[in-house]
Amino acid sequence: MSGYKQFHGLSGPLFGKGLGPGALLVYPQLQELEDELEVLVEEGGVGVLSGEMGMGKTTALRHYIDQRSDRNVQALYHGSSRHSTALLEALAEGLGVAPARHRAALLRQVGQQVERTWHEQRRKTLVILDGAHLLEDALLEDLRLLTNFEMDTADPLVLVLSGHPALRKRLTRPVHLALWDRVRLHYRLEGLSREETSEYIDRHLNAAKGSPDLFTAEARDALFERAQGIPRRINSLARDALKRSARRGLTPVDAGLVEEAARSQQASAD
Asked: What is the pTM of this model?
């Protein structure tokens, strides 16, 4: 066990990605997003989720998928680090078919399988693409074509594009207006409030069997102010402050240690 965990009596790492689904803080905005996604899945169409880096978009989307228990929807989640053809291949594989060799054939294949799944199983297909602000223009056009189903009763494909705020601006460019016109859900994920930040810290402490008094009230306020409620920044600053306190044999973590961690990280960024 690393030094800071042993010093603070922690059973595991703090403020990382290892937090179990049951320990996740479902704050009001996250619940609202999940409710909006439920409506989108039911009614069909395209959804756009935007937010600054580290805001928790990926965590929110994965939690939504994990919470779905019905058999009426098959969910496919992918990041955007793939080449367009590779992403279409991954979608085909996720739908249970061997990918075709050429891009145009791949596109038809994915569309046909989505329709087949709907007609034969009455199951919609939910495709979530994270980091969508990085997708190639050609792939965005392919996605528009995939959503162009002409059915009277339902939209068998539900598409969610998630990315940085620049995603919304990009989709409003003339070349993508046809896709933008299909967007029925516009949601921007904001940072945690001061109270939610404190509860977020408690969830992580509880998961690692840490003392609820490990961070003073002033330290919690400093984490909120310095991180602006952004979960990834809270994680980074809190871990840094914990390590500093362990090296100096100080407990609990106070606001001074948080401020010191923030200044150090800012200096590194500059």
From this structure: 0.91
